[in-house]
Recover the amino acids of this structure.
């Protein structure tokens, strides 16, 4: 049985990790490299770094930070934000990341998924999606519309239509971000995550809303997520990664034990 992955998310702005609620009112938490080491040593399976304003401000990702993280940790990590094309992907991977996450770029230029998968392998290309719930079922049969630029821009694209297309283009993994759940710590968007997981044959990662370990159990058991991103619950030091994994083991979730 494949084990479920626990992935701390570090939102980076001006070389500092920040966290907000529904992507607003972010506060500074610390140094990304120091936090990466702490979580890696604590037993997480992977890490993900998002430069949360790079795309919106039209600037490149911080390659030096990627290099520093690669030197400091020995687990896979993904990087997203500010990726503008194949050369940016190449730079991130050569700097030491195992995966590159695309979101706004992929919506604007879908073929970047196929190009990246061909050049670097599907396993290196992650699609982040930011769907928002809509009542316009006629236009959006899934009930969700894809947004970009940090939820700032609506696209007119149906969520399921987009993830199926991305899977056909060769993306290796899909991260389902819920703006409604982000930072609220009331649980993942089970409906949305399950819908995506049941309609693609590639790994699906749940993101947004984790507050207690039971939320991870639910998204693994009910929504069939392959991995779960966590942030606030560990950034506040309310839970350690080991505490979360111990509870998941008690709940019968197959996870990697590193101690």
């Amino acid at each position: 049985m494949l084990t479920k992955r626990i992935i701390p998310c570090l939102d980076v702005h001006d070389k500092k990790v920040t966290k907000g609620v529904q992507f607003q009112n972010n506060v500074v938490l610390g140094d990304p490299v120091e936090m990466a080491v702490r979580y890696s040593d604590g037993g997480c399976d992977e890490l993900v770094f998002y430069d949360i304003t790079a795309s919106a401000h039209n600037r490149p990702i911080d390659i030096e930070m990627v290099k520093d993280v690669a030197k400091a940790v020995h687990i896979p990590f993904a990087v997203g934000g500010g990726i503008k094309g194949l050369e940016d992907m190449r730079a991130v991977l050569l700097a030491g990341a195992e995966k590159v996450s695309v979101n706004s770029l992929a919506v604007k230029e879908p073929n970047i998924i196929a190009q990246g998968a061909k050049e670097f392998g599907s396993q290196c290309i992650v699609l982040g999606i930011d769907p928002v719930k809509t009542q316009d079922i006629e236009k959006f049969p899934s009930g969700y519309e894809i947004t970009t630029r940090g939820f700032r821009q609506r696209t007119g694209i149906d969520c399921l239509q987009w993830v199926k297309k991305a899977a056909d283009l060769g993306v290796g993994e899909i991260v389902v971000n819920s703006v409604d759940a982000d930072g609220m710590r009331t649980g993942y968007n089970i409906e949305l995550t399950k819908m995506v997981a049941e309609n693609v044959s590639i790994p699906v990662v749940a993101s947004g809303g984790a507050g207690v370990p039971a939320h991870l159990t639910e998204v693994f058991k009910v929504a069939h997520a392959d991995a779960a991103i966590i942030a606030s619950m560990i950034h506040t030091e309310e839970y350690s990664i080991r505490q979360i994994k111990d509870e998941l083991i008690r709940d019968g979730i197959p996870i990697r034990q590193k101690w």
Remarks:
- The domain at 5-127+165-189+203-250 is CATH 3.20.20.70 (TIM Barrel).
- The mean pLDDT is 91.
